[in-house]
Amino acid sequence: MKKNHLNSLSNLCFVLGFASILGSIAIWYLTGGDTAESKAHAERFGIFVGLWAPTFMILSNRFDRYADRAS
Q: 3-state secondary structure string, 18-61?
């Protein structure tokens, strides 16, 4: 791949990592509901989405390294 494509992928993954964190917080607080079961579901789903952040950050780092090698 070309260096500019790899840099774009790196930047996209970095932004998606932070979006995952913000989405996790939003899911946790906005989809809670009234019952204990719905609050527990919102908490688990928020944690699930929050776990995507490290994956996106790792991919961002990896694409950045590949871009450095491509130059």
A: HHHHHHHHHHHHHCCCCCHHHHHHHHHHHHHHHCHHHHHHHHHH
